[in-house]
Amino acid sequence: MNKNYYIIDFDSTFTQVEALDELARISLQDHPDREAIYRKIEELTNLAMEGKLSFRESLSGRVKLLEANKEHLGLLIKHLKKQVSVSFSRNKKFFKHHADDVLIVSGGFKEFITPVVLPYHIRKENIYANTFVFDADGKIIGFDEANPLSDEGGKVKLLKDMQLSGDIYGIGDGHSDFQLKEFGMIKKFFAFTENIKRKAVAEKADHVTPSFDEFLYVNNLPSALSYPKNRITCVVIGEVEHEAVHFLKKDGFAIETGQEAIADAGILLVAGGTKVDLALLEQAPKLKVIGYMGNGSEQIDYDACTTRGIVVFDNLKKSLSVAKRVAKFINNGDTFKSSNFPHLQLPEVENAHRLIGIHHNAPGMIAKVNQVFAERGINIISQFLMTNSKIGYVITDVTAEYDKQVLKGLKEIEGTIKFRYLY
């Protein structure tokens, strides 16, 4: 069986930012021309990432403009540790289980990359990057020009020399990452767009991955999420406050507007005064939750939402709190302060899977659910159930190892309205 390797870029991929750009903002904060220098450094970064300037020229130009020293690097490292991409941060377990298979390959510098990625169980010997040259006072005066990663096509040269035996998958945001596929060094190139989408790179990719969850999902690898949030479409209807939309976008959901998008909506974010009736609900067969920016008592058909297993949160004054409750429901299963569902606040769990079922409020439903687990020898860690006059809402946390057929069995229970595997 072939071994798989995962080649991951650092800047704007593993982290949300370009580290040299951030270093410039630290080292030049008192420089009178700092804004002009920042723009020049960012321009050199983007030209290289888009393949419009050789990497060596870009790197050399940026390092010369930095005027940085070891003290500045310490401040940068502290900053970068808080800037790890959200979807990488929540998948620490993947890196722990694949420590032998993950390589960080970057045109950045080991001096700041190593301390940022080591807490993610990435082996020191699997970090490939440039190194700075310092003068006697600790000032950065250049870089090791013999390192292949300092040159154009450096990642390609490095992988040729390494001669890895197995299937190699590359994840990155820039031209140098795509070059690995262009020169036949990797099986597939995934353009990572969680932080920045470079059109010239995304167009050439085998797959555009808006999050690391998406990469794990399409490659059938274990993930912190059962289903990538970027695949859950949030459709905005009407003039919804920007902060609410921005919150859900930042949390990783795909934001859409327009009537045609409703058919794929997992979330509806609806402006106050808009009617949410049966006709609208019938257009949205995938809908899980509605965030209503106003008083929905006269505008929303709560009964129709409830019997379809759709949770509703509404608030007359606080649009951001509505968005946060919507996200909490999708991410954790919480229905606290919903307008139509039993109110459940749930603990987060580790080393377990959370299964969520919405069913008609009929006798014996919980017994049927537990019978499915018992027949397959599944150990239940915790279980939560609340009902109202129409539905029952049951959350079951089970041990991490279980027969996948259990999902099929749970979905087939008579009386089930909706079922999802949360994580």
Q: How would you describe this structure to a colleague?
A:
With 423 residues, the chain is an alpha/beta fold. The chain has helices spanning 10-14, 19-27, 34-49, 55-66, 70-80, 86-89, 92-97, 110-117, 154-162, 175-182, 199-202, 212-218, 242-250, 278-282, 302-307, 319-332, 365-375, 405-411, and strands at residues 4-8, 102-109, 127-130, 132-134, 140-143, 167-172, 188-192, 207-209, 233-237, 254-257, 265-271, 289-293, 311-314, 352-360, 380-387, 391-399, 416-421. Strands 3-2-1-6-7-8 form a six-stranded parallel β-sheet. The protein has a five-stranded parallel β-sheet with strand order 10-9-11-12-13. The chain has a four-stranded antiparallel β-sheet with strand order 15-16-14-17, with helices on one face. The radius of gyration is 25 Å and the shape is globular. The chain starts with a strand and ends with a strand.
Judged by helices, strands and strand pairing, the structural class is alpha/beta
At the fold tier of CATH, the topology name of the largest domain is Rossmann fold
CATH architecture annotation name of the largest domain: 3-Layer(aba) Sandwich
Strand content: 15-25%
Tell how many strands the DSSP assignment holds: 17
Oligomer classification: single chain
List keywords for this structure.
423 residues; alpha/beta; Rossmann fold; 3 domains; five-stranded parallel β-sheet; 18 helices; 17 strands; EC 3.1.3.3; ACT_dom; metal-binding; oxidoreductase activity, acting on the CH-OH group of donors, NAD or NADP as acceptor
